[in-house]
Amino acid sequence: DIKGLLTGKDCPHMKENKGKQNKEVLDLAFSITYDVEEYSLNFVAPSRTDFCLWTDGLSVLLGREMSSESMRSELEILLSMEIKLRLLDLENISIPDNAPAVPKPPTNYNFCYDFSQNEQ
């Protein structure tokens, strides 16, 4: 069973290379530890986005809170949208329950200019 999720300087593979790792690599490191103390899976994510996705996903699976800056940013976007929708309601702008009907496709698609033909 998974015991925990370690990040940064707390990771076993970062402790082994203490002083040899730059801060960028240290910020992307995470480890999955198991009930058996001496065994862990060690990772270094290729980007900050991947690091946030992996650590947030593993945190949720372990029943913990997501804590990455990506999660906070996405939460802020969602809260901002909710506030804007509630403000629309205050201004008596009704939001329909059903999506609008999809229009019929055009009879032809010849409405784009063809740049490949040479003008004479």
Automatic annotation (TrEMBL):
It comes from the Eukaryota. Residues 1-63 form the PH domain. Pfam families: PH_12. This is Engulfment and cell motility 3.
